[in-house]
UniProtKB/TrEMBL annotation:
Organism the protein comes from: Streptomyces humidus
Gene3D superfamilies for the chain: NAD(P)-binding Rossmann-like Domain
PANTHER family with a match to the protein in the record: RETINOL DEHYDROGENASE-RELATED (PTHR43391), SHORT-CHAIN DEHYDROGENASE_REDUCTASE FAMILY PROTEIN (PTHR43391:SF86)
Domain Ketoreductase: 8-188
Protein name (database record): Oxidoreductase
InterPro entries recorded: KR_dom, NAD(P)-bd_dom_sf, Sc_DH/Rdtase_CS, SDR_fam
Keywords recorded for this protein, A-Z: Oxidoreductase
Chaperone is among the record's keywords: no
Lineage: Bacteria, Bacillati, Actinomycetota, Actinomycetes, Kitasatosporales
Family of this protein: Belongs to the short-chain dehydrogenases/reductases (SDR) family.
Amino acid sequence: MSSVLDPKVVLVTGASSGIGRATALALSKAGAIVAVGGRRTDRLEALAQEAPGEILVLDMDVSDPESVREAVDRTVERFGTLDIVVNNAGIMLTGPVLDADPAEWTRMVETNLLGSMYTVHAALPHLLRSRGAVVQISSTSGRISSAGAAVYSATKFGVNAFAEALRQEVTEQGVRVVLVEPGFVSTELADHITDPTSRAAVKTMAESMRTLQPEDIAAAVVYAVTQPDHVAVNEILVRPTDQSR
Ligand SMILES: NC(=O)c1ccc[n+]([C@@H]2O[C@H](COP(=O)([O-])OP(=O)(O)OC[C@H]3O[C@@H](n4cnc5c(N)ncnc54)[C@H](OP(=O)(O)O)[C@@H]3O)[C@@H](O)[C@H]2O)c1
């Protein structure tokens, strides 16, 4: 496995923590050159120290199309190509619809849904040239909607819809689209929930099961992108064994 992705160039968004960080490290260990995007660049610099391969740190806010375009351009200017994009950046600000602050809905739509669309739009010309791949980190919430997660789920259902249409548009040109749908993973995602009841409910849920670790999802991404060119792993759903829905 060690040089399977050598010399592929991969951009991972939201690589400063959780799934994105673990995925960037796993791809680096598999031989890829990895451009890592996020707003907390101090954390990205620390990741660059830890990774075995070459890392490009990008100050990148996926909710800002200009920032996204700059990040993609910098990656291609530096390495001459872009082979794989992992659209991972996301936020989960759950709570009941009635009590919600619509500004949080805007942030979720701009980050989870529009952010991944902006990244695909900026990267696609390069991916068509390299016959590359797009990995969209969605969620089980993109398949099953549940009370308290209406808008988070709506963004992930949107990610799934976008991925399937994109797949149909580009598959015959050799670009593979991979949807990865994690269940409950131990990360800082829920720490940012502002509604105390919802935050406590997620914590209780986490304590009730053996959750996934970010490395479990990173392994799924590496599996998908290391298949031979004629094999398109289009969808991977990974739940903790203890998670029923
Ligand atoms: N944890 C789970 O149980 C779970 C389950 C299913 C799906 N997911 C999905 O997995 C993805 C990663 O989440 P995680 O669990 O690893 O959470 P996390 O540890 O909170 O990581 C989220 C990442 O997204 C980045 N991010 C947030 N807003 C951004 C923005 N505007 N621009 C650029 N980067 C931004 C953060 O970086 P900065 O703050 O430094 O910008 C951070 O690196 C998300 O799409 C999430 O919906 C998670």
